[in-house]
Write a structure and sequence with these properties.
Layout: E1 3-7, E2 10-13, E3 18-25, E4 32-39, E5 45-51, E6 58-60, E7 68-73, E8 78-83, E9 92-101, E10 113-116, E11 120-125
Parallel strand pairs: 2-11
Antiparallel strand pairs: 1-3, 3-8, 4-5, 4-9, 5-6, 7-8, 9-10, 9-11
Length: 126
């Protein structure tokens, strides 16, 4: 049974930083593509950032480039999303997900990810 557990969300002000964590169990974490998505109220779930396994290629949504950084610590089965210069439009529930094995490219679509965490709320006040 694969499980992903996010943590680190909260209420912050515009310009603040947060770091989200996602710890995985039930699969050999290091082999898999992993990513963060987010969903704001009344909107679809959107890709935020992803990182491949051994190639360590990253990909970001245009809206977060230069502000967010995705990383992974395979020894801890954990991935991170460092979010800087937060804006009110970053307010959403953030989900981590795992995708295919040994992918060399980041996928930006939900269908390529098969396991998801329960989500953590990030609220940025203006």
């Amino acid at each position: 049974q694969v499980q992903l557990v996010e943590s680190g969300g909260g209420l912050v002000q515009t310009g603040d930083s947060l770091r989200l964590s996602c710890t995985a169990s039930g699969r050999t974490f290091s082999r898999y593509l992993v990513a963060w998505f987010r969903q704001a109220p009344g909107k679809e779930r959107d890709f935020v950032a992803g990182i491949t396994s051994t190639a360590r290629t990253t990909g970001y949504a245009d809206s977060v480039k230069g502000r967010f950084t995705i990383s992974r610590d395979d020894a801890k089965n954990t991935m991170y999303l460092q979010m800087n210069s937060l804006k009110p439009e970053d307010t959403a529930v953030y989900y981590c997900a795992t995708g295919g094995m040994f992918r060399t490219r980041v996928s930006y679509t939900m269908k390529d990810y098969d396991y998801w965490g329960q989500g953590t709320q990030v609220t940025v006040s203006s």
